[in-house]
Amino acid sequence: MSTNCEADGLTISSLLVQARTEDHRRLEEAISSLPGTEVHASTGAGKIVVVIETPGDAELVRIVDRIGAFPGVLGVNLVFHHSEPAQGVADPGRRSEGDAQDAEGKVYPA
Description:
Elements: E1 10-19, H1 24-32, E2 37-42, E3 47-54, H2 57-69, E4 73-84, H3 86-90, E5 100-101, E6 107-108
Antiparallel strand pairs: 1-3, 1-4, 2-3, 5-6
């Protein structure tokens, strides 16, 4: 899975997808084919854990909607969600005027 950072930043999320058992393998393949997605774990009996990296929340919503619309999907639940602004992703060590820095060099944005 590649990290795609556009103007929005980076969003990392995980989902639990509940599927009909007979559609399980087909859905694993379909989900894996979506950009920024990775099937992290699967029970083989209808539960699929998916990790998603997107450039922002709007793209995450589009992917979740696509997964939810696949035939055989019974439910999609967001389990984890974290967003980073583009500024923090592009150059995490960059300091701005007014930022504080502790004795160990950790920067605290103003």
